[in-house]
């Protein structure tokens, strides 16, 4: 039995497996610039975040209808359940779809077809987190939040993703304040490729409750001390860090040192279709390569529920 765990850093668009991409392309009459799934998989060699994002946005062309988003989320939930995921807080990137002429309603209603019955179908409770693309303008983020008004009963929080360097969190001060006023929870990617100062800014200017990645906090001992003291959860993604070259090899990953430092770390999959594994695969990889003890693995699983947006009673049931 895989360890029961919560997944807190998962981009639903990053769960698009090559087989489903081709199936949806055929269904929607979209031509992909790859002959077959094998040739597509060949393209999964990334040198940094941007080289991954280019393919990630390109393949989104196959997602057009509510049913496409339902099939995407349903396939993820089935895989996650098999790897012990009991709760998933799922990111989506509305601006990337709206820009292609796919409405926010299509995306949310589609995802909800799978998420609405996820507890019954897969034994996984879910939350939706709407991410703003940080390489788009602050005005575009505000417009996206406005467009989400009819769907706020289905959206738990907001996040910030896409190309990090050059797009500091403070750019999104206003939209995060507006999201907080609406009662939305707040998270942001920070310190994946960007400097430690972006982590501090995400906490102080955006008021985030969790930091996605946060890996580069290690370059600033005072920041590490603060994250430990304030029990700020970090949603780490070890296989992603290897594939996007944030670390050289998995054996170099600082997760053990981060746990030893007292940081509230969680292990997640980020974009599992692209990075070689789902939540359980990430757990297995860190156990096998980093030699984490059973106690440490249980701590990581416990942290994932503690850091989640589940209420206490839900959290107890999920664990
Ligand atoms: N980082 C930033 N943006 C993203 C990622 C990521 O790992 N995945 C999807 N959008
Ligand atoms: Zn991410």
Automatic annotation (TrEMBL):
It catalyses: adenine + H2O + H(+) = hypoxanthine + NH4(+). Its cofactor is Zn(2+). The active site is at 192 (proton donor). The keyword Nucleotide-binding does not apply. This is Adenine deaminase. Keywords: Hydrolase, Metal-binding, Nucleotide metabolism, Zinc. Belongs to the metallo-dependent hydrolases superfamily. Adenosine and AMP deaminases family. Adenine deaminase type 2 subfamily. Transmembrane segments: none annotated. It comes from Streptomyces musisoli. Its EC number is 3.5.4.2. GO terms for molecular function: hydrolase activity.
